[in-house]
Design brief:
single chain, about 230 residues, mainly alpha, 3-stranded antiparallel β-sheet, 10 helices, 3 strands, globular
């Protein structure tokens, strides 16, 4: 699938998720950045989109901001969401992963605002809470299920790519050569700390949420890939 097509599909996935969150009563608002930690993960497809946004909007200096804080501890995922789904179905154990919000805030935050808000990855978009996060973030169980489904779909459309911490993916995508190789599906070096994406083989949906989530699944399945003319 051509890169421009995959980015278009990603944008449509984001729009479907936005439509879903617009039906929720949320406490999230401007300058609410408690959930904006160093532990966000994303796919290379999302990283490419963000890198492109930074370059096109004259914000390339933010790469340096990320690099300057790259020595700090952050969440380094061992497996992807689709791998977790596969392990669950096989009844196998999921490896323990170390993550702690006290490791610090997102390196991009400026006065508690996100300078890439319109291009932010899904893991930022899906951090939605019914209550003020300063007090105690609260996310409905169904929302968690929906989030996992969207993460699986996003990984699926980028199955030839890799995933990792926000910092590691963006520093990899800072390189023009890496972006070119990724766009041409010629990546030979995955980058430090990055893990291979996998296709979606089964959706992680608890039985109690199967009926409720059907309209969302139907919306995702209506996304049509526009074939490029030969």
């Amino acid at each position: 699938m051509d890169l421009s097509v995959r980015i278009d599909v990603l944008d449509r996935i984001y729009k479907i998720y936005d439509a879903f969150t617009n039906t929720l009563e949320l406490a999230c608002k401007k300058h609410c950045s408690v959930c904006c930690t160093r532990n966000v993960t994303m796919t290379m497809l999302e990283g490419y989109k963000i890198a492109d946004y930074l370059i096109e909007n004259g914000k390339s200096e933010l790469f340096k901001k990320i690099k300057d804080e790259s020595y700090k501890k952050r969440f380094l995922p061992k497996i992807t969401t689709n791998k977790i789904a596969d392990l669950c179905i096989q009844g196998k154990d999921i490896p323990d992963e170390e993550i702690d919000s006290s490791w610090g805030k997102c390196p991009l935050l400026i006065n508690d605002e996100c300078p890439i808000y319109t291009a932010r990855p899904f893991n930022c978009r899906c951090m939605v809470s019914k209550t003020n996060c300063v007090d105690n973030a609260e996310m409905d169980e169904f929302v968690l299920t929906v989030n996992n489904v969207f993460l699986q779909y996003i990984e699926h459309i980028d199955q030839q790519g890799f995933s990792g911490n926000f910092t590691d993916v963006l520093l990899f995508m800072e390189s023009e050569n890496n972006r070119k190789n990724y766009s041409m599906e010629l990546l030979k070096n995955s980058g430090k700390g990055l893990i291979k994406n996998l296709p979606m083989t089964i959706l992680l949906i608890p039985p109690e949420h199967k009926n409720q989530i059907k309209p969302i699944i139907n919306s995702l399945q209506t996304i049509k890939v526009q074939r490029q003319p030969k």
